[in-house]
Automatic annotation (TrEMBL):
It comes from Mesonia algae. The chain crosses the membrane at residues 6-25. It holds the Pfam family SCO1-SenC. It comes from the Bacteria. Belongs to the SCO1/2 family. One of its GO terms (molecular function) is metal ion binding. This is Protein SCO1/2. Gene3D superfamilies: Glutaredoxin.
Amino acid sequence: MKNYSYIGISLVVLVFGIWAVPKIIDKVSAPDMAEIGTVPSFSFTNQYGKVITNQDYEGKVYVAEFFFTTCPTICPKMNENMIKIQDEFYGNPNFGIASFSINPEYDTPEVLKAYAEKYGVAIPNWHMLTGDREAIYELANKGFNLYAAENKDIEGNFEHSGYFALVDQEGVIRSRYDDFGNPIAFYNGLDKKDLEKLKEDIKNLL
């Protein structure tokens, strides 16, 4: 019996060149990823004063987080790690980041621009976003299911999830499965191992 899979790959090599084989193998062996939900429509203003909506992320894989610039606890570490993700995919126009401020009254475009410069935001598709408070909290808690709230009894006066969400080219939140076959849903923005998993899964989607 002829090995038709081998013949098929051989034909691809003849037509497209040897470089095509690794791409085919990677595509076949790429792990399945869970679909967590679809990101609802949003419209906010970025650090340059430009209105950014879902349409600006269409066709791109992006990572989303919720933070605020005066955060005294987890935000600095989250954004240091986000910079590492930026650097991993630097120069790829099909990758982006969305950082939504949960303290929009303070985090004006000017404040966000200074914060972005401080941390080394360097890719054009990393938008630090501010806007209507209720819309941001609705997006966080219901759209992404990433907790965010104001709490005057804690340091910094706000509390939020330290997790990152991975979104595919069609606006669907995606994640890998754990060892028991359950979707992890989100990636711990403070954990080195989760950061490596996130990088791998971004590459998978790209």
